Amino acid sequence: MINDLKLISTRTKQPNTIIPRYIHTYTYIKTTQLWNLVLMENMKPVMKDLQRKVKQAALLWLDGFKEACSLHRVVIYCLRSRELMIRTGQCFLLNGFLFLGSIFVLKSVIIPTLEWILPDQCPLVDFQEPCLRGDILRLHYLLRLGLIQIVYVLWFYPLYVFSFILSNIWYNDIAKYGFFAIEIHGPDVKVSPSKNKSSSDSKNLTDKSTDLEGVMINIAEQAYSVLLLTVFFVEVYVTGYIPYIGKFLNFLLLSWMYAYYCFEYKWNLSGRSLKRRLDFFENNWAFFAGFGNPCVLAIFLFSPLVSFGVMAILYPLFVLTATGSNADKVIDSRTEWQGLGLGRLPVFSLADYLSIRVLSFFWEQPQEQKPDNKTL
By CB neighbour count within 10 A (0-12 exposed, 13-18 middle, 19+ buried), where does 85 fall? Predict the structure, then answer.
């Protein structure tokens, strides 16, 4: 009887404990569902806006990639200008035939010949031939390594420096001759013309100040641009050592850097100020990322010396495609069709901040020396 009474009491008390828990879980589920619905309703416009921006960034990246790969313009511009054809051919001969050809001769002829004359291991085919001692094989290895290093020091490194300096001079000539060929004959591509904005931009681009003040401003802008890009190059180099995402960041920043280098020749010749260059570049970062991607592939596919030779051949071609590119009109037509801007991405903000800090360090030194001179 006592056990039955206990069972009855537990059965009667059990519903009283289950119902409040059920009500609590039910209300919790309903409130979370309501909150999720509210969040989804509020996030719908944000997600649509983000989706449109991602789509536009992808299309602008594709436009930049197409502009960089429009290498048929190089043939057209070379046919228009004899000087351009000569300079481009000289770049091919110096960097392709002489530099890359020397690397090919070293890898295919010189090193195998040295390995045959100075072997560092016993032959595996002819067992009757006596094997040299270990110290002699070690000496052969050191001699061969020393001879290869002598070839590098006396030939490749001076050729690298000579090619780097001469190629940079020729790149400026190539951009200048290509720019003049486009000014005389017009570009080979036709994009739907913009309205008054493009015409006003073209007028502003061709307006160059010829007085002394304008010349000094141009010199100061060029000096600051060199400092800015030098600091940015150090930033690109450092990002390569970041774990996991370092290679991706290095590839992306190098793409932006080479895209800026390619368009800088045109912007210098057209008289665009440094501030307008940086504003235009950072507001259209997706386009320039796409333009710079083909330029950087050679660096990641080959060894350092080979990648320099390949890049030295391809770089003037990308300079010419950038010179003949109507980037302003392509981007304007894309933004007018989409009706949405990507927003500015501060690509050069860190390099700009560090460059200003470097300049302020040199400017503050004379001010700190004045009190010391007075006390003396």
Answer: middle
